[in-house]
Amino acid sequence: MARKQSDYLAALLSDEVDANAVAVPEEKAPDVASLRPERTRGTTLLGRESALARVASGEVRQVTQLLLNPARVRIWTGNARHYADLNAENCAELIDSIVAEGGQKVPAVVRRVEDDPDHDFEVIAGTRRHWSISWLRKHSYPDMQFVAQVAQLDDEAAFRLADLENRARKDVSDLERARNYAEALKAHYGSHLTRMAERLKLSKGWLSKMIKVAGIPDAVIAAFASPSDVQLKPAYTLAQALDDREAAKAIAAVARRIAVEQKALREEENAPIPAADVLKRLLAAPTIQVDRSEPYAALSRHGRTLLSIQSANRQGVTIRLHSGSGANEDEIIDALRAALRHLEECGRGLHR
Fold this sequence. Notes:
This protein is α/β, with parallel strands linked by helices and 352 residues long. Helices cover 47% and strands 12% of the residues. The strands form two sheets. Strands 1-2-6-4-5-3 form a six-stranded mixed sheet. Strands 7-8-9 form a three-stranded antiparallel sheet, covered by helices on one side. The chain is globular, with a radius of gyration of 28 Å. The chain starts with a helix and ends in a 7-residue tail after the last helix.
């Protein structure tokens, strides 16, 4: 053991010092004298031996916290939380807390990485803390440091640790968690659901539902205003409906139309279609598609019909563009493409 490390260990083990709350810059060895109160600097050899014995017995464990530049720390891809979705709004409370307390008080958990010249560590637990510190360094707090605890973990252990932290987080959506579980099932558990449930201490039935929801296609998810709107219980019903091939085609077609409507609403800065209404329309799609009496129609962002399918047979397809819809050229082109996809999925396309 190097002298600086042995000195640090002795300081951490002092009965008068909190060994689990010492954060030090990675590149700088700690000053032992500064870590102890004045009255404890005469610690006897007997006291040190006693402390070392406590470490050997497992009663005390050394925990090293580092002060890191977040730019040198990457995010582990096995975490359920999407780093790209974090922003100053959804991290506002944490940012305010860090500023008020003069720095990050709860350390993240990281592990060392190799063969990456741009990064020395990766975050296993503490993605929001990493983002918030990075943001603060760019906004008036350039000296703010990322406090992290280094752990030696394989990927499966890292996944379990990240999962434990994220389970209680309301800002990790059911869909994010479901897809994270689906990836981990293959990567860490050889697609053995029972084994995964046992390792995570989860109900096999509940985990099975999560994996089912993870399989909902992105094209269907796009119908919702946000992926966070996809909640486990209703999404499981939707996932079951998608098991039927014909129903899946109908649901996909309606999902595309809803996605176009959602896009138009966002551009007009109007309220999106609620998740409950989206789900209702998607689940009703198979029965609507069976009834051919109503022509396919696409609406403009103003809620007026811009396109409808008049007929589709062996001689060709007749599509009507309606005047007065208020649609621009891009909307019309998008609607036309959606209509052609709809015809293909219904078996009435131009390529049949």
